[in-house]
Queue: 3 jobs
Job 1
Amino acid sequence: MLKARKLPLNIAVMKRLFAVIAWSMILGACQETENDLQDFTGNEATYPLQAGSDYAVHGHITFKERRDGSAQAIVQLTGTGGNMLHPVHLHLGDISEPGSEIAVLLNPVQAATGRSETIINRLSDETPITYADILGLYASIKVHLSESGPERDIILAGGNIGQAYTQANGRRAMEMAICKSE
């Protein structure tokens, strides 16, 4: 019968092995980040989203230009929670204009995280759109409490973007019109 013999544990070798593993993990994580960064040009625009109702919800939307010319829209809100999904609409027109058309339905904000990410390369009518086009729109963003029922008319947060924001000199809208969501 063979007996297993105990090998002396060389602490220096173990430290080196641990360092190699740790560096591999760090470099692997950085590689993912570098790959993610390669998708973007570095151009981005951020617009504030103010509370639109009695709910204390506010935040911002950032549009990041992707290398293919499309835009990644990232909504980040504070004051949300639970497991609801909050619809996000990009409307043509100032946020105070009633009945403005929905140009794009963005992915809903997940209440648990307050976050939504959407790649935009077409409007709802299939018209192609680029990052530069979005910045040139006279438009607004509205985040709703719910997709249907009476809560769909409750705007949690919203704000002007593109030319509507620029022409208002960054002033926040005082009132938000009910969305034309049908």
Job 2
Amino acid sequence: MIYLLQKLFNRLTILNKTLQTNFLEKFPQALERAQEVKLLVLDVDGVLTDGSLFISPDGVEYLKVFNSLDGHGIKLLRSSGVEIAIITGRNSPMVKMRAQALGIEHLYMGVDEKATALKELLNKLDLHPSNCAAIGDDWPDLSILTKVRLALAPANAHHEVKAVSHYICNLSGGQGAVREVCDLILSAQGHYQRLLLQAKE
């Protein structure tokens, strides 16, 4: 009897570790949906950053903090042939500079109707929403997330955003969530191991 209980405990321990290390088991659709992605659309505040806004006494935003892991993930994903776009409701010279540094050509700032911007971008690239993934954290992103093939949310996203997402990141915005998404798409499309081997050469 003790042997059987010990065996059951060991199996439960292994299962628990698997759930902790293989986050995709919670979202079985994610890998399949990611296979068809040709465009990844990013929000900024709460996705590429942690959502904090640094405002000077005269009302000007003076700082945004980005994550270097996210940046490299974006570069890797671009190298695999996936287009990257930013659609954000705020205007920011810092976002413009970051986009330029990462080679992101499709930048939409000061956008009130994100779904309209997405439609314009898809027409420009001759793509369909079924070729698109998007990550957002709050209600302004819902009009995009409900239309794309792969909807993603950082761990810090509002619960209504998580409710429509096919994959909820283990990491928060500004803390590696975008890199997690890039790794997911690279893995689904068979590029992750190849790029990893190249990095080790």
Job 3
Amino acid sequence: MPRATYRLLLILALTMTTHAKDWLATINYNVAVPGQQMKPYINNTSLLGFGLDARKFVSPSVSLGASFGHQVFYWRSGEPASLENGFFTTTQYRFLNTLPFMLSSHYYFHLANGMKPYLGAHVGGYYAWQRAEMGIVVKEDRKWRWGIAPEAGVLIPVGTLHMNIGTKLSYLGLPGEALLGDPQRQLFMSFFVGLTFIDVNWH
């Protein structure tokens, strides 16, 4: 996806919080750990991830919103790969890009010290782009998958902003053709930290 698209999404999220009431926008840095089903395909922790989240409060404790993100997994493997014409024993370079476009709902708990723990869930689609390189042989697969991502976090006041810390469990469904040991359903755990811009009357 072009960088201009990322910039546009970021500008839109910030604009909503600047010109509208009862909105929240968050920019997160994500680290993701592959689940057991993903490990035969990619076994490395992903340090390349970010997320954008915009939420509208329908009450002081409940918000509805939308989220977007990008997580990149990479693994260099020396395991033999089985293809239609036989086995390859050369080094493999495996990539998995996930781009979620989801709707969300969250519930917030209000503590006396100003911190606000929350629970929520994201539901929608993931664009999954997988690529495996073995010498001059390249296998690639791109598809949309439905998914769900329960989430837990806490908003911590930092001056006029809030720090957002939490974790999210992402599940990608919709079975398709397997790619070099790639599971047809994927699961990974994300840990994130970010900044949250809020224009909300909590009372």
